[in-house]
Each structure stands twice: as structure tokens, then as C-alpha cells.
């Protein structure tokens, strides 16, 4: 395998990785290692002490990467050319590994799908509120918090009791007051540096330039990343009228919440509505605009991290925008199958990269179609990236033609590889929306 005798390794990290076959990458002589890890309360509970330091799921991934590094040569792979790919829950962990000293030298390339270490929903400093909520839910009543009792309850709870208790910890009023989406169990800052996956918030690391990265990175996003969350609105659009007078805004960046209903809150809310919605009003015809607004809770942190990372990195940072709408867009087909739009949502690229068991008939049906050609092109790009750190290392390619994917350049206009019916470099279509959030973030920090 490979011109130098050694093959190339890619580690696929996803909570459902067992459903994804490596067939397409094997054709490109890339070895795939699939990694599972602990998620939710079992993987990311942080009691801020020795009992549960947090980030256990991320540390599972680190252990797997160490195993790959030590053993990939037995599978004819090169330990110095390992690429990690993270999607779903794993995307934040992989994005954080770019900054984690614990992950140093474990991989040479990284691909991050619809995730960011700068997402306020997925990376927070303290987990105290979550720990108290778990305590109250498992105990069955809201009394004085007692850590020793919590440990006893956790130690004696069954798996199903723990998983059940970890769901729906925050109600809609708490999300409203937080003004940010909340993932109860995600990556967090650890209180003790020794053995930590992350002991400083990623934003602090970027701003202080504490990390010098030698990892080549691809950040990728789908055009409507959070559309899958709008199944209810997609089928009952009249509910959008209710949102117009009860719009509770969300911010895709860190900061202190404003009091709900305050003059400042109302001003920010109207500012967001004026930008995203025609005449500042949400109607039954506003679903696509609302989907863009909600998807920017994913896209803005991702683009922000990509830009910040390109400034500290000694290696290349690439950006892609997944816009292809086909029969194996698994996220779209599962969540909003009757929505006759173009575009893509969270998880839609997965079955074009990996052979999904649930799509066997679709692959056979489209063996000679545009779908199969799309698969060949996107897999070739990522296989090239695994091998060379460059998705388009040659001026001409039998599958990609003369396509050239340029990395981000400092002080240059932000460009992205658009993966649609055609593959081409374009100016980032979402840049105006990203500038809006940049300006609002800076304004809120000053006040």
C-alpha cells in the first residue's frame, strides 16, 4: 500500500461508527480505524474533583489514538501520517484536540464535521449546575446539594437510571435565560492540569497564542446544519407565527446573558430579527430564514475557530461547505424528508464518505449516477488529505480533474471549497451573517 511501502491511517470517531463501512477509503488505500467512546453522563460528567474529572469520553479517544500510533504499522500503516475525523458528538472533542497537550503527536491531520471547540453549547467552564440537576433528579426532590450523597447515588444507580436522569435537564426557560443552546454533557475545562484533556478554555488558548499547531486541518459545515431540529416547524409552519411575538434569541458565542425582557434584551432580539427576517417579522414563510439563523449557532463557532486556528497554525487549514443534496443525505432524509429544498444538514456527508448499512439499496441503484461520482470525488479529496496534508496535491487527477483546494490565507478574503453539484472554490456565502455575529459579539463585550 502506498508508494513508500506504508499505507495511510484514518481514525473515524462517531457515536455510531459501527454503522459506517470503510469500503470507499479502502479503494484509496487508506486504513480506517473506527473508534467508539463514552458519551453523555458516562463520558462527560464533571464533578470538578477526583470523582469525575470530566472529558472521559475524549480521553477514551486519546487512548484509542495511542493504540493506533503503537499498532498501525502492524497493518502496514504509517504512525506519522494518522488522520482523525470527528462527526456528531465527537466533532467538539476532535476540535478541542487541536489545542490539547494530551493529544500532541497522536495525529498529523484532522477533519472536523459541523463542530467547534468554541461552541458555547458544547464547551463550558463549569459543570456545577449540571451536577446539581443530576443529584436532584436521581434523588427525586430538590433539597440541599450534598456531594457525598451524590457519589453514593451515582455509584448505586443502574446504567438506565443514569441515562434517563441525564435527559431533559434544562427546560425551555433556562435555555431562554442562558441565551445559548445547552448541551448538558460535553467537553469542559478540568480543575487539575495534570492528566487533563483540557485545563484552559480554548478561546483563552487562541487569544494568548499558547498553542503552536503542526496539524493540517479541514473544517467542514453543512449549509443548514441545524435544520434537522426543525421537524415540527417543517410540518406545521403556522407555529412560526407564534415565534414572531415569542422569539427567544440564541447567541453562538460566549458571554453574560441579559435579563429576559429587559430593555437590552428586547433591543438585541429586534436587532437579530431585523437582520434575519424580512421586515423583522417571522411568518409562515420564514422557515428557511429561521433554519439559517439556527444553523448559524453551528456555523459561526466553526468559522471562528477555523480563522483563529489558521493564525496560530504552522500547517494548512482548509474549509469546505457541504451543499450537495442527493438520495443519501441521511440527516435530511431522516429528519425532514418532505422538505423540497436544496442543501444539507448535520450528518449528510457521512454516507458519501462511509458505506452506510441503511443505504445499501441506494448505493446499488445509483452505481453509475452522479451520486457515485460525488462519492468518488469527496473520498479522493479526504484520502489525499490523509496521505499528503493537501486534498489536491496534483495539478491534474483522473477523478478530480484540475480542481485545486486552497487553504485559508491570512488577511485574504475567506474562501471555501463548495461541495455541491460542482466542486469549486467560492467566497464564503455565509460571510455577511458571520460579520453580523462578529459585530454583535464585540458590541456586547464592550457593554
TrEMBL record:
Residues 13-437 form the Carboxylesterase type B domain. Keywords: Glycoprotein. The keyword Glycoprotein applies. Gene3D superfamilies: alpha/beta hydrolase. The keyword Glycoprotein applies. PANTHER family: CARBOXYLESTERASE. This is Jg9080 protein. It comes from Pararge aegeria aegeria.
